[in-house]
Amino acid sequence: MVKHILNLTKEEKKDFLASFDNVFSDCDGVIWMVSRPINNVGPAFTLLQEAGKSIKFISNSSYRTDAGYIQTLSAIGIKDVKPDDLIHPDKTIITFLKSHPKYKSLFPIVGPIFKEGLISSGFKIDEMPLKTEEFTLQSFTESIIPSNPVDAVLIDIDLNLSLAKFCRALLHAKNNPDSKDVLVPGVEELIDYMENYTGKKSIILGKPGEQLGHHIMDLFNISCPKRNLFIGDNLSTDIGFANSLGFQTLFVLSGVHSYEDMMKAKAENKPTYFADGVVDFIQFFEELNK
C-alpha cells in the first residue's frame, strides 16, 4: 500500500526525512504547468533545502536555457540553484554526442536554444531549405530529400515542426537519401513512428531512457541509490524511471496522472510514497515540528 506523506505517523515522517540526502524533481506538473507556477512550491522546496537536502531539477524540455531555468525557479522562490543542479535534454544529448565521436553531422528536430547549442558545440547541422511559399507536390518532394547523409537524427520538442521536416528526418534515419517512399504521419509518438518506419531502435537520452540514468548516476557520483528521492507526476517517465535507478519515489497528483492511475499502475511504476503536491511538505514540516 502506497502511503500519503501526510498520513505517516510522526516517527514515520522522521524516518522518511532521514532516509534521503538528495531530491531529484521533475519540473512540468510538479513545479509548474507549462508556464504557470503551482502554488507554494517555492516555500516547500525551501523547507527541504533548510532540512539539508540537495535539490536537483530534471526536465524533458529544452525550451529554456540554464539561465532561464534559474530565473524561473528563483521567481517561484526556489533560490541558490546552479547550472550543475539542472538536467535537461540538450545538456544530456550534447554530452552523449561529444563522448561518441562518430556523431559529427546531425539532422535535429529541436527548438532554437537546443539547435544553437549543437552549432556552438561544433556539430554540422543539415538545414531544411527556407520555405516562404506554399508547397507543390514537386517542391515538397524536393525539399525532403537530403542532399548529404547525417550520422544521427535528433528528436526533441520542436514547436515549429512541419510535415516536410519530419519526412526529411525519416529519410535521413532510414539512410536512404534517394528514396521517394514517403509516409505521411508529443515526442514519444514521433519516436515510435520513426522506429516503426526505419526498423531501428532509438537511443533515448531523456526520461525514462537508460542512458540518462547512467548519466545521472555518474554526474552526481551516486553510490547509494536509496538515499535519493525522486519527485514526479508521470508514473512512467518519472516514477518508473526513478524506480529503475533504485531511488525512492514520491508521486504527486498535481500533474498528468491521477490517484486512480497510481492504483492501477504496474509494479515497476508504483511510487514509494505519494502526495497531492510538493506543497504538502509545508504541512509535513509543520506536523513534524509540533
UniProtKB/TrEMBL annotation:
Keywords, ordered alphabetically: Hydrolase, Magnesium, Metal-binding
Entries under Gene3D superfamilies matching the protein: HAD superfamily/HAD-like (3.40.50.1000)
GO CC terms in record: cytoplasm
Residues the record marks as active site: D26, D28
Binding residues for Mg(2+): D26, D28, D233
Free-text cofactor note: Divalent metal ions. Mg(2+) is the most effective.
Any one Gene Ontology molecular-function term assigned to this protein's record: metal ion binding
Cofactor(s) in the UniProt record: Mg(2+)
Binding-site residues, substrate: K207
InterPro entries: HAD-like_sf (IPR036412), HAD-SF_hydro_IIA (IPR006357), HAD_sf (IPR023214)
NCBIfam families: HAD-SF-IIA (TIGR01460)
Family, similarity comment: Belongs to the HAD-like hydrolase superfamily.
UniProt name for this protein: 4-nitrophenylphosphatase
